[in-house]
Amino acid sequence: MQADLVEMQAVATTDQPVMLAARHIRKAFPGVVALDNVSLDIRAGAVHALMGENGAGKSTMMKILAGAYIADSGTLTLHGQPLNLRSPRDALDAGIAMIHQELNLLADMTVAENIWIGREPRNRLGLIDHGELNQRTRALLSRLHLDIDPEAMLGDLSIANRQMVEIAKAVGFESDVLIMDEPTSAITEKEVARLFAIIESLREQGKAIIYITHKMDEVFQIADDISIFRDGKHIVSGPASSFTPNSLIAAMVGRELSQLFPKEEVEIGDVAVSVRNLTRRGKFHDVSFDVRYGEIVGFAGLMGSGRTEVVESLFGIDPADSGEITLHGQTLRIRHPQQAIDQGMALLTEDRKKSGLFLMLSVGENMEITAMRHHARAGFVRQGQVDALCEDMRQRLAVKTPSLHETIENLSGGNQQKVLIARWLLNKPRILILDEPTRGIDVGAKSEIHRLMCSLARQGVAIIMISSELPEVMGMSDRMVVMHEGRVAGVLPRPEFSQERIMALASGVRADFTN
Questions:
Q1: Cβ atoms within 10 A of the Cβ of 436, count?
Q2: SS (H, E, C) 337-358
Q3: Are 273 and 77 in contact (CB under 8 A)?
Q4: In angstroms, what is the C-alpha Rg of the chain?
Q5: What per-residue string of b and e applies to 179-192 under the rule 16 or more CB within 10 Å gives b?
Q6: Domain 267-344+430-515: CATH class, spelled out
Q7: Mean pLDDT, residues 481-487
Q8: Percent helix, strand and coil across the chain, each rounded to 5?
């Protein structure tokens, strides 16, 4: 990276006025300094991408700007005026709204009720005017070109549409500053294009957008300015045109990542998993595939293609209605996850917070859950043994935490993901299913997880990986199962991988790629 780029300060990068400024912000939690003397300028009418590894301090900074955290020291100004935020309501009143990566919506309320909660229109009797509420919602959704029913229950929507409702909710505040934390993590390419059109419209209105993402292509597509954090410190800011992907990664991780997808050629063994004609009504039909020991089989497909549903049936979460599953040469009917675990299977779920983590428990307690039964005698757990294994796994996976006693909710997304992987590795699985293993984590943590996958494959573990990121599933797989609308559209060996071919299969398009 060019020396003069490293020397740049966190100041505005063009003549457009600074709307929001942070100066010398410090925030500490028990055992860790999350932000250390950080300064930042956000310009009006610009998209400012905030980049850094998980644990770099990005989310802490955004929570301070959104009023969820109070800085230990430092100052904030908005439109040149001092800003004293003591709560998220203070931030909203000041004109700062945040779109959270972990959706803050209520499943048992309608779309309209979620968007306008706390600011619903009232009639003369002081009751909520549902007609006006739905009319306002239709107008807002129409302005954003979103085809969503205002009266639909939020819980009935897809994850992608829930994310779009979260975006609409933030836009509905008509705020001057919008903070977007991983807004594209759960939406399709079509919806990403729609979101970018919304951002462009907001930019033209003079709004300031703070954009957090781990997707490098998005940064160079949408950002005007980029700031990079590392280990709680501001490293560099500059126009997006001042960076290249390599210089950006080097500034984020403090080192060059020579190979993000370090796929290795390893000895492939016998069939570990054989699935034949697996069907679950309304979800997937007639799915067949094999996975061998030492092999990484990637699952690709558009959202709603049935990838997650297939592996959940394989693991016994939602058993299939028909079909055959053979594990280690033995045909079984898996009706419960414990049966799968007993057969040496492990599943890293797609949504770590909803179905993986116990957020109020410690790192160690989250890690040891599946291993405790292997270290019990006469009904008593040999806790010393378990603690030693967890500490060894913490060091092996480089989990950044003050100790195993730290509450896991305080860890970054990437480190939470490592804890979940550690949980299953303590069980010594022979078959490992990874559903979106690197979603919402930074490039450094992604590289570490990819190297771990290669190490496990080298040890003979059979791996199934689902990923919505095509470069990842192409880069890490020996073979690929492509799904379309609940069916296997094709199975490709590694030499036949191409983005065009995979997308054609995933979209249900018949095309000739022989030439």
A1: 22
A2: HHHHHHCCEEEECCCHHHHCCC
A3: no
A4: 24
A5: bbbbbbbbbeeebb
A6: alpha beta
A7: 93
A8: 35, 25, 40
Tell me the angle at which helices 443-458 and 245-253 cross, rounded to the nearest 10 degrees: 80
Residue 142 in tokens:
């129409």
**Residues shown for the chain:** 515
Residue with tokens 């709603």: 304
Q: Tell me the β-bridge partners of 97.
A: 178
365 φ, ψ (degrees, to nearest 5): -65, -40
- Order of strands, sheet of 96-99, starting from the edge strand that comes earlier in the sequence: 96-99, 177-181, 208-212, 47-51, 225-230, 233-239
> Which band of pLDDT confidence, cut at 50, 70 and 90, is reported for residue 324?
very high
CATH architecture of 3-253: 3-Layer(aba) Sandwich (3.40)
Domains of the chain: which residue ranges? Answer: 3-253, 267-344+430-515, 358-428
**CB half-sphere exposure, 145, CA atoms < 13 A:** 11
Token reading at 135: 């009319």
Pairing of strands 225-230, 47-51: parallel
Question: How much is the mean pLDDT over the chain?
Answer: 86
Q: Which two tokens stand for residue 238?
A: 């500059």
Structure tokens at 471: 């470069």
